[in-house]
User: Fold this.
Amino acid sequence: MTQDSQLDLLQGLIERAQRGGATAADAVFVDSRSLSAAQRFGKPEAVERSEEHDLGLRVLVGRRQAVVSSTDIKPDALDELVERAVAMAKAMPEDKFAGLADPADIAASYPEIDMSDPTEPPAERLVERATAAEQAALAVKGVTNSEGGEAGWSSSRITLVASNGFAGSYQRSSHSVSAVVLAGEGQGMERDYDYSHTVYETDLDDAAEIGRRAGERAVARLNPHRPKSAAVPVVYDPRASRSLVGHIASALNGSSVARGTSFLKGAMGSAIFAKGISIIDDPHRPRGMRSKPFDAEGLATVRRAIIEDGHVRSWFLDQATARQLDLKSTGHAARSAGGTPGPSATNLYLAAGPLSPEELIADIVSGIYVTELMGMSVNMVTGDYSRGAGGFWIENGKITYPVSDVTVAGNLKDMYAALVPANDLEIKHGTDAPTVRIDGMTVAGPG
Assistant:
């Protein structure tokens, strides 16, 4: 469907809902195409293509709301969808925080963001890319098994129309390549991976380089030690450190703050990081993986410092959580076709510091360099943090032998206060961070 036909479809659906008894309504349409290829030991495991669309309708009858979704857009099906949605809303209890944005607050205009690659690669190219990634990984000495190479592409158009006057649409794309392999034999096997995920095909890392890195990482983890328990500095490499930024996004999410279930619920304006540290949310980043010109309620999106000079400067808010907190939405609403809006970060990153990773590690007598985190034991109410980890031991300022089966533990408040970022930030995902060092954590091993 074209952009205009999607807008017309949703506008007609809104009008149907209002004629059917809704006092307000909005509708979202997601039209998606994807293609993927998987190879294992040089043989194709799957080449899959899909084309699908999802339509979601939210109706309000006063302060009662309901959401229904469908993949069927035939007129009779849409009539039934509207009837069901209005009936459901009338049966729901009142929610004093439910409602569309005020017409004065919706985005009157929004920027054109470079976030859609017009290139649709042929299946043969994805097969070649997946094959090259796996072959390069298997060529690394010590690699003994493979979980395969994969390559993919997708493109989606998101269209939103609401009875408050908002109507908008944007398109996004993604390309990816990955490899997962194992090194060693028997009980001593170790697994690792690498991948690249970009908006534009031309920005992808070379597939063979992805495979080579995956193989070398797996081999480097062979014959790991299991250190004794100790309180030592913990250094997170960028693959692991971005999870710490993800925890911040959860702790500052308006839903958690409004419910009182965040350990940072009273932290607005407080210093929770050291001076000079910033965490930025940038929805307008060109070729950003989570860029968007407007949010799921039709509000303008803006770049903002969530953490500035170590202080909390903003929650992530949609309309409902903003009303609960007696604040204004920050334009962070996100939704699926089948759900109500909720706050979510866009392109979120921890700004780089002045020191190189080598300088960050140089004075560590004994510590751990974490490259992998496993399990999830993070209490967002108290901030207590405990996760399985693997990586390498740091000794006299140098990364030495591999370690595994350890637990790194602390409290996120203490961890953020002690966090020191390096200067190696690369923005590749939706949530990013450089290498970071945190002193004072507990590393628990078997002894």
